[in-house]
């Protein structure tokens, strides 16, 4: 549920001319894409690090399970590996969504708002 402040901000935004709203959203999408791509690169590099360190992919390790002689460090790495793999997938989806806005622009009808 929206607070009174959020509703006021939304009303101020919607009071702007359509072209201005489109420019704000499109330019914001471009800036956000830059940030997401940096985070995506970091997450991918973390996943690659674990793949190189253990000589396997996470899906293969998940299927085979951790070796019986896996130590504490491998268990910790396994948890972090999963975390970074999830981050990669989430960022990939976020990037695809925002790329559509950044490349094609965004039309906002009189009663619609980009977040809805």
Oligomer: single chain
Helix/strand/pairing class, anyone?
mainly alpha
Number of strands: 0
Unreliably modeled segments: 108-116
Relative strand content: under 5%
Biggest pleated sheet: none
User: What share of residues is helical?
Assistant: over 70%
State the shape: elongated
What gap, in angstroms, lies between the N and C termini? 13 Å
Q: Mean pLDDT, rounded to whole units?
A: 87
SSE order: HHHH
Global Rg: 21 Å
Count of helical segments?
4
Name the descriptors.
0% strand, mainly alpha, elongated
Structural features, described:
The chain is an all-alpha fold. It has helices at 4-15, 18-54, 58-64, 72-104. α2 runs antiparallel to α4. The protein starts with a helix and ends in a 12-residue tail after the last helix. The model is unreliable at 108-116 (pLDDT under 50).
Question: Outline of this structure?
Answer:
Helix content is 77%, strand content 0%. The chain contains 4 helices and no strands.
């Amino acid at each position: 549920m929206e607070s009174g402040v959020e509703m006021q901000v939304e009303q101020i935004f919607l009071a702007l001319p359509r072209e201005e709203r489109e420019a704000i959203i499109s330019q914001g999408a471009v800036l956000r894409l830059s940030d997401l791509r940096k985070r995506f690169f970091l997450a991918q590099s973390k996943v690659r690090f674990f793949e190189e360190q253990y000589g396997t992919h996470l899906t293969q390790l998940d299927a085979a399970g951790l070796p019986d002689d896996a130590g504490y460090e491998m268990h910790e790495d396994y948890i972090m590996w999963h975390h970074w793999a999830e981050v990669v997938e989430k960022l990939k989806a976020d990037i695809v969504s925002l790329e559509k806005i950044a490349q094609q622009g965004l039309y906002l009808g009189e009663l619609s708002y980009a977040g809805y």
